[in-house]
Every structure is written in structure tokens, then in C-alpha cells.
Please model this.
Amino acid sequence: MNNPPSHVRITGVGESKQDLIETGARLSGFAEALNLEFEFHPLHKMLYDATGGALRDFFRLIRSTNPSVVVMAEQESEHNDAVLEKRVSNSLMYYSAILTVSILCFHYKWWRSMAELGGFRSVEISERGVSQSQMILKMYDHPFGPNSFKVEKQQQRRVSDGGAAAGVTLSWSDQPLYTVSAWVPSDVAGSSSAYQQAAA
Model:
């Protein structure tokens, strides 16, 4: 990034208070190593209800604060399919991968629709961002072999942005586990290109 920020403020939202505390500590340590002034504000909040109304309202609340960029990280469990057999099948595949690797949310497509209803649009993930993710992955020892995990772009065809890659997915043995995506307010002109560096 040509003009790095002098100060970064992050509000982390999640259902696990402990995860938020640990995330804040890791980010603070990373910012300190970069000599970057940093604030982390944890917000412990349950975002699930049967209709998705709570999550839509939450995205609208975030939108009202006019954030520079919103980053979402979600588990690729896809347990909310309308067909029972598919929910069971997806759950078996997902949790067999999770238990084997040893770690409930919604699939990326569902999150995307909620974010768009809340007034956001996704930012294309750069090749540099993917390369950095792959480099970080190689820093860890994997008991199931170096090729058991992989990081790939999440390709989503959308009319609004021409089908650009909208996220980075961590998979194990071809089973998606986590997807990270970046979002900006949908009515900010030129924000897609302006925040591609942020998504990197």
C-alpha cells in the first residue's frame, strides 16, 4: 500500500467472547510489530434468527456508521438448506472434515445476500491477497501433509460486479472450511477500486 494508515480502528463482532479477546490480542501484537497505532473494540453479539432479520438489521446498523471497509470471516457449514437430506449431507461432510482436522454459521452465498440487503457490495480480492494467504498457510506445520490445506479465491458470478472473485476460502481435502471477504458501502462511488488494496 503506497500510503499506509497512521491509525487503524477495528470493531470485531462475534458470538464467542473468548474468540474476540484472543483475536484482539493477536491483532494488537501484529500492529505493535508494524509500529501502527491500533484500537480493537470487541462486540459480543448473537446474529442468528430463523428469518435472518437480525442479521439484516445488523448490517444496516453497520452501514449507518459509514465504515471504510467491512471484513467477514465465516465457517462454510451451509446448514440452512431448505431440504433436510441436503442439510444432513452437508453437515456430515463439514463436521467430518472439522473433526479430522481437529476445530455454526452460514454459507458465503447467504452472507453475501444479507450484506447486499444491508447496503454493502463486495470488493474483489487481489492476487497479492491470495498469495499472502498462501504464504501464511505455509508457515504452519500440517500433520496431514503440506497439501492437505489450500487457499483459493471464492468465485461468485454476479451481475452487479461482472463475476469478480469476492472472497478467499480455506479448504481441507476439497471441503471448504472458512471464507474471508471484504465489503464496502454500495453507494460510495469508486469504492471498489479504492479498497482493492485494503482487501489485499
Summary: The beta strands are 7-14, 37-44, 70-75, 120-122, 149-155, 165-172, 175-185. The CA atoms of residues 184 and 190 lie 10 Å apart. The longest strand covers residues 175-185. The two ends are 9 Å apart (CA to CA).
